[in-house]
Design goal:
This protein has 85 residues and is mainly alpha-helical. It has one domain. Helix content is 93%, strand content 0%. The chain is built from two helices and no strands.
């Protein structure tokens, strides 16, 4: 039962983090490509667009992420009595 709960937690972690990580990865790749083409080496140019993209993804997918997390926590709390007995 513990291994099943751990497996569910890892799958839920991947589901919740995938949209943010994917968008930040794509934005970072585009910014790096832009920096390589223009030969601009500015640290804030690499950081700020990724931060803005992550905030946009959280704004758009935040309710879905929160519902996934709340559902997992609810199922975990409901499974406590069966795990004790």
């Amino acid at each position: 039962m513990v291994l099943t709960m751990g497996q569910e937690a890892l799958i839920m972690l991947l589901m919740v983090s995938a949209p943010v990580l994917g968008v930040v990865l794509v934005v970072g790749l585009l910014v790096s490509l832009f920096q390589a083409v223009t030969q601009i080496n500015e640290a804030t140019l690499a950081f700020v667009p990724k931060l803005v993209a992550a905030m946009a993804v959280f704004a758009l997918a935040g309710p879905w992420m929160l519902s996934i997390l709340v559902d997992y926590i609810r199922r975990t709390f409901e499974a406590i009595p069966s795990a004790v007995m």
